[in-house]
Amino acid sequence: MTVFRIFIDGQAGTTGLQIRQRLAAHPHIKVLTIEYDLRRDASARRALMASVDVTVLCLPDDAAREAAQLAQSVGCRVLDASSAHRTVPSWVFGLPELVPTQRAAIASARQVANPGCYATGAILLLRPLIEQKLLRRDTVFCINAISGYTGGGTKMVEQYKNGGPAYVAYTLDFDHKHIPEIQTWGDLSTRPIFHPAVGNFDQGMLVFIPVVHEPGRSQALHSTLQQRYEGEKFVKVQGFNVIDPAGVPMLTPHGTNGSNNIELFVLANSTYPDRTLLVARLDNLGKGASGAAVQNLNLMLGLQEDLCTHLAA
Ligand SMILES: NC(=O)C1=CN([C@@H]2O[C@H](COP(=O)(O)OP(=O)(O)OC[C@H]3O[C@@H](n4cnc5c(N)ncnc54)[C@H](OP(=O)(O)O)[C@@H]3O)[C@@H](O)[C@H]2O)C=CC1
Ligand SMILES: CC(=O)N[C@@H](CCC(=O)OP(=O)(O)O)C(=O)O
């Protein structure tokens, strides 16, 4: 049985830990760890990178840029969970469901950038609708979202340990780091507006995009998403106007926690036929980070794509 070796640079952070938890049961991947005191030591990290098949970067952006160079200097393939390389042309964007050719691009890439959590929701909602010209690519889309506090990494987790505000809106200056990847990979010709918030819960996320379109197109938006993601293991398009299969007309951010799934909702009201609310629900640490990273690792190593992508129950 083939066993690949990987090194997680940033193994003790929020994303790194959840990748390790997932990989603990992986039959084809062995994770090499670095001694705690050497975790920031360039030569120790370079030596590990030289001995593995893929290095996964779970570091802040600047540290990820430096680490990517270290890995490149020893010829090691890289999967970067940070936002440092997501729109860099020499890197492949690690969203397998982006377009039909994306899996092959990830499988053969030397350098793969794992997408941002909010961006994953926004891109999967918008891209097929723009491709099919149901929405105009020059629209200024207004995206709102709420995330669990683990999205802010160990610092934010620490802040919330003894309680925190129920709801905090942030990035009120139109300049969130996910906007470039949403624009590039959503194929938008205009910079979107993005307005995130963080809530007092650990994991889970909702991404909302209200859209205005030609009257009567809401069902077409839904069927386009349904056709586009038919057969996808991790992307579930809910029924048209179905908020919750249990019939409760409310959405919580928690429905996908622990999994690598993302759910897409298309919500409309026939009284207002020119508008539709698009919603994505995902686990910020699942399809938004660590689950997606394991999915990409599997693809990069030529393994079955869904091996250990969900957290064991
Ligand atoms: N949390 C989330 O939901 C998501 C996070 N991401 C991205 O993944 C990356 C990691 O995020 P997250 O896990 O949340 O962050 P954390 O803050 O939880 O973890 C960061 C890790 O990086 C290590 N680190 C920091 N600076 C350096 C350095 N200069 N050299 C070596 N190691 C360093 C820290 O170790 P120590 O401080 O102990 O030295 C820690 O283990 C970030 O780029 C983030 O943007 C992506 C998607 C979602
Ligand atoms: C709540 C919170 O702070 N979230 C983070 C995004 C987490 C994430 O997925 O982003 P990256 O992959 O780009 O790091 C933020 O808004 O910066």
Automatic annotation (TrEMBL):
One Gene Ontology molecular-function label: NAD binding
Highest taxon, organism lineage: Bacteria
KW NADP (keyword) present: yes
Keyword Cytoplasm set for record: yes
Active site: 117
Family: Belongs to the NAGSA dehydrogenase family. Type 2 subfamily.
InterPro entries for the chain: AGPR, AGPR_AS, AGPR_dimerisation_dom, AGPR_type-2, NAD(P)-bd_dom_sf, Semialdehyde_DH_NAD-bd
Subcellular location field: Cytoplasm
Protein name listed in UniProt: N-acetyl-gamma-glutamyl-phosphate reductase
GO biological process, one term: L-arginine biosynthetic process
Assigned keywords, A-Z: Amino-acid biosynthesis, Arginine biosynthesis, Cytoplasm, NADP, Oxidoreductase
